[in-house]
TrEMBL record:
Transmembrane segments: none annotated. PANTHER family: 30S RIBOSOMAL PROTEIN S1, SMALL RIBOSOMAL SUBUNIT PROTEIN BS1C. This is S1 RNA-binding domain-containing protein. The keyword Thylakoid does not apply. SUPFAM superfamilies: Nucleic acid-binding proteins (SSF50249).
């Protein structure tokens, strides 16, 4: 398994566990600068992280807590917020306290720099990477793409069907896939909708005459847009009392690929509390150069081209 993974992915790996239980293996890991993971249990008054190495005390000094702490470009909250969570690190030294007990000095910053140099700096637009959601804002989702290094996924790139907030799709800690959308001045932007299938791939799951579930996404004077899947929505005839955000039972009148339209009738609606599930992906490769969402026989062409 690659060591350049979102933080928390290595902690349960057997190799990682074995190393944490052996001073000799920790010494070997120090010499090879191998990236390891363990749980941060305390952040002391000086903002040093105390890490549990299977009963051995590990210390990540404050300035080694994350890239940017030393020069002040990153605030200490980046360190404090790691308490009770997995942290990645490399071993920098093994010493003893006044009672002869081992103390292992660690650096998360060095692990992140190693990840940047060997992995993230080599990513190009269109590369598909594993990611883990770290926090959600109105404008998008932030995801760890390796060793706690975070990139933004703007809300309009999460799915074709529009949402009001990323919490409608993701939960913090959810493991997902993401596409590198852009790399500018060292900042990486992510996309997601290109992995959720084309219009035809999603429409193939439905047939005219079926009654299926959906989510009311918007209500206009000419009808209501109903999401059937994250990358597929149809237009329903207006019905009194229908509100955006409701769950709906809808009857499929027709599916028209050449117009990229699905006509629906709302049978019933009820209030709905979002409980996001892990996304269903239609792409199993590690790269995508071009994504054509629209059907081949549709006049309107909807596509994404990833410039390398």
């Amino acid at each position: 398994m690659s060591e350049y993974l979102p933080e928390g992915k290595l902690i349960s790996e057997q190799e990682n566990i074995n190393i944490l239980h052996s001073l000799k293996m920790l010494e070997d890991a120090k010499n090879s600068e191998k990236i390891l993971e363990a749980k941060a249990c305390v952040c002391d008054s000086s903002h040093n992280l105390i890490v549990d190495l299977a009963g051995i005390k590990g210390i990540i000094p404050r300035e080694e807590g994350a890239i940017g702490i030393k020069d002040g470009s990153v605030r200490d909250i980046a360190v404090i917020s790691r308490v009770n969570r997995p942290v990645c690190f490399v071993v920098t030294d093994i010493t003893e306290d006044e009672n002869g007990k081992p103390i292992v000095m660690l650096s998360r910053e060095k692990a992140q720099r190693k990840c940047l140099d060997a992995y993230i700096s080599r990513l190009r637009c269109g590369d598909i990477v594993p990611a883990r959601i770290t926090h959600l804002e109105n404008f998008g989702a932030f995801a760890d793409i390796g060793c706690g290094i975070v990139a933004l996924m703007p809300i309009d790139t999460i799915s074709v069907s529009r949402i009001e907030h990323p919490a409608e799709r993701f939960t913090v800690g959810m493991d997902i896939k993401a596409v590198i959308k852009s790399v500018e001045n060292g900042r990486i932007s992510l996309s997601h909708k290109e992995l959720l299938g084309t219009w035809e791939e999603n429409a193939e799951r439905f047939c005219a005459g079926e009654t299926v579930s959906g989510i009311i996404r918007s209500v206009e004077n000419y009808g209501a847009f109903v999401e059937l899947t994250p990358n597929l929505a149809g237009l329903a005839e207006t019905k009194e009392g229908v509100r955006a955000g409701q769950q709906a039972s809808v009857y499929i009148k027709s599916i028209i690929p050449e117009k990229m339209k699905i006509k629906l009738i709302i049978i019933d609606t009820f209030d709905y509390k979002y409980n996001p599930k892990c996304p269903e992906y239609y792409c199993d490769s590690d790269r995508i150069d071009r994504f054509v969402y629209s059907p081949e026989n549709c006049r309107k062409r909807v596509e994404t081209i990833f410039d390398t």
